[in-house]
Amino acid sequence: MSEDKKTNQFAKHAIAVMKTEKKKISILKLNTMKKKKEPVAWVTAYDLPFAYAAEQAGIDLILVGDSGGMVQLGYKTTNPVTMDEMITLASSARRGAPNTFLIGDMPQGSYEPSSRDAVINALRFVKEADCDAIKCEGGERIIDKVKAMVDAGILVMGHLGLTPQSTSSFGGYRVQGKTVESFEKTLKDAFELQKAGIFALLLEAMPAEPAGQIAKQLDIPVYGIGTGDMVNGQLVIMHDLMGFYQPFRPWFAKCYIPEVAKGFADYIVSLDDHRQVGREHRRDGLLVLAEMAVLKYIEDVKNKVFPGEEYSYAIGDKQLALLKKSEYWKE
To answer: For residue range 143-162, what is the model confidence (pLDDT) as tens digits?
Structure first.
């Protein structure tokens, strides 16, 4: 099949309005996908239009990340983000994606002070923003908070590797898991979090091999953002996927607009009456482009095309050989 025909077929599929209501994914389904080695595709979203586009494209999960403080609110880091701001972002995303599993990201200061604070703020995501789960950063140091939230009936996702709220302790944005010490610490933290009751784990900024080891050894799903293709699913920041964030773009992030631009242009040109399509269906602008970009990303994740080596951190042969000598490494 020619590339033009592929593009046109994809364009027709991407711009089709969903005829049936999407069914929200379950924890049981996520565990089954791990066992069957079916990758999970998810994105961040912080507002109604992007969450809507993600749901229409068929995304598995949506994370309302504290990264929204940077890409949506304009902060230089995620640290200034407040709970009130996160609730506003999460509520907006929920209204855009009512049928997608939604995860609220606990901002810095919302869970560290005490287990009581952790439970109260996590419940705000559930009660005020209708989130299905929450995510928090850290390992052994926050185990008591994680247990308290789980005991309160809240679904908790862990986050290890490069944890943006704690970058100062890593000496900046540095790739994790490349040394024996870093790998073993991350794996031990992962086991502690699993024991505490998290339903899934997110790893950030690690080479594929150590990240894959953690995914292999844990019973729960392990997803990655910048951790190669050996984990159980991939997360990207929507503003990176769309090319909407100007200050910088991580090494592992891919903008999908160049790949869908022609299909979008072909679709727009094919419309006989742009105004009528816009008035009747609102299928005449950037919302369609966003949906097409997310759909192509999902397709690449499901077919194990993304991230590939091009969007993964490499590890040297000598470094990898040292990791494999760790008593915690399993072949």
So the answer is: 999 999 999 999 999 999 98
